[in-house]
Write a structure and sequence with these properties.
single chain; mainly alpha; 4 helices
Length: 172
């Protein structure tokens, strides 16, 4: 692989991160300002029988862990997620594989989208409520959370699948 091609993938990953961040913020603006979802409470807006828009303020991180109840905890979460984002950006710049770089772009874009919320508001706006009847396999989430999750799943799947292929080739 040429250095120019690897550089193009890295730039594409950063562009993807910026696109995810922008789209995340645009959707959050739409659900809060246009739909005024926060005024509807837990009633939300049902789009289809198993998915509705429900406003939630997440003061923690993934699945409500590390709930930030004070300003000190809030800014600690901001610092921690900024450090993780800086690591992901560094990883993107070192990554040689296109698919891994793009997956990292999803993770970075989602992280930045949620950092913007936490800095601006003190919490992350969540709105996507997937459910089957009363059973909710996920907490209420947002586009940034989905991008992070998809990026991580891609990275894990590629690491496991490529490692298995490499192990099979080496054993022959």
């Amino acid at each position: 692989m040429s250095a120019a091609l690897a550089g193009a993938w890295r730039k594409a990953a950063v562009a993807l991160a910026l696109g995810v961040t922008a789209l995340d913020q645009l959707v959050k603006y739409f659900v809060t300002q246009v739909l005024e979802l926060h005024e509807r409470g837990l009633v939300g807006i049902e789009l289809i029988p198993f998915f509705k828009l429900t406003y939630a303020e997440n003061r923690g991180i993934s699945m409500g862990f590390f709930h930030a109840e004070t300003d000190v905890m809030r800014w600690a979460l901001v610092a921690m997620t900024m450090a993780v984002s800086a690591f992901v950006l560094w990883w993107i710049w070192r990554e040689k594989e296109r698919d891994d770089a793009l997956a990292l772009g999803l993770v970075l874009g989602g992280a930045i989208g949620n950092i913007i919320d936490r800095v601006r508001l003190g919490y992350v706006i969540d709105y996507a409520d997937f459910h089957i009847g009363e059973w909710r396999p996920f907490l209420i989430f947002n586009l940034a959370d989905a991008a992070i999750s998809i990026g991580v799943v891609i990275l894990l799947a590629r690491a496991l699948l490529l490692r298995e292929k490499t192990a099979v080739k080496e054993s022959r």
